[in-house]
Amino acid sequence: MATSSLLLLLADGRFPAGAHAHSGGLEAAVAAGRVTDLASLEAFLAGRLATAGLVGAAFAAAAHRAALVADAAGPATPRSAALARLDAELDARTAAPALRAVSRRQGRALLRAGRAIWPDAPFHDLPTEPGGAHQPLVLGLLCAAAGLSRSETATVAAYATVTGAASAGVRLLGLDPYRVQALLVGLADACDGTAAEAARAADDPPERLPAAAAPLADIHAEVHATWEVRLFAS
Fewest C-beta in 10 Å: which of 54, 60, 92, 199? Predict the structure, then answer.
C-alpha cells in the first residue's frame, strides 16, 4: 500500500481503535453550556488543537523518532528507554486522572490494531505499566511501521484531535454536518501549523516537549467520568 494511502488509513476515524467512542471532552462542554453552536464549537476545536493537539502530536512525532533507534543487546534497549521517558513525560502533562486513563485505554486499543496489521513492528518496546502506553506513543510506532514520515505522523495526531470532537458535535448538538465539515476546512491551516510545530519539537529531549494545558478540559473530564449515563466514553 502506498504511503499516502496508509496516511489516510491511519487518519480515518473508522480505523479500529475505538476513537469514535470518544468526544474529546466535547460532551461535558456541551452539558456545561460552553459549546452550543457552530461558533462555540469552532472555538472549542481551536483550543483543543492548540493544547491537546500540539502535545499529542509532539509526543507521537517523538515516539516515531524513537522507533527508528536501533535495537541493542540486553533487557533494556535504547528504544524502550526512550519510549519509557516519553511515557513518563506525557503522564506528567496529563493532569486529570480520567484523561490519563482514557489515553492509555485508547493506546491499548490502537496497539491491538497495530499488532494485527504490522506484527513485526517493535511494539514490545512500549511501556506495559501502568495500563499500557499512552495513545500518542503507540500512534508514533504505528506510523513508523507504516513508513510515514515524522511530519505525517504529527499531522495524523493533530488531525485526530479535532475531527473526532467535530463528529461528536454533530451528534450532540444536531449541527448540520456540511457546515461542520466547512468548519474543519477552515481549521486546516491551523492543523498543519500545529503538526509542523510538533514535528520540529520532536528533536528536543522529552522534558522540553510542549506542555500546553487546558485546566477546564481537565475539570470537565473528571466530571464526565462520574456520569452514570453518557453518550461517549470521554
Answer: 92
Cα–Cα nearest to 142, from 14, 6, 21, 22: 6
* Rounded distance between C-alpha atoms, residue 111 and residue 152, angstroms: 19
Nearest to 54 by CA among 217, 199, 218, 169: 199
Contact 23, 165 (CB under 8 A): yes
N-to-C CA span, the chain: 33
Grid cell digits, residue 80: 524502550
Please write the tens of the pLDDT for every residue from 101-133: 999 999 999 999 999 999 989 999 999 888 899
What sign has the CA pseudo-torsion 79, 81, 82, 86? positive
Q: Are 138 and 126 in contact (CB under 8 A)?
A: yes
- Residues 186-189: contacts with CB within 8 Å, 24+ apart? 186/42, 187/42, 187/45, 187/46, 187/49, 187/162
Question: Which residues of the chain are modeled with pLDDT < 70?
Answer: 1-3, 18, 70-77
Helices (H), 12-134: 26-31, 38-48, 54-67, 78-93, 97-117
Angle formed by the axes of helices 150-173 and 3-11, nearest 10°:
30
Q: What is the DSSP letter of 71?
A: P
What's the predicted TM-score (pTM) here? 0.93
Question: Do the Cβ atoms of 49 and 190 come closer than 8 Å?
Answer: yes
Cell numbers 449541527 correspond to 175
- Report the C-alpha gap between 167 and 232 in whole angstroms: 12
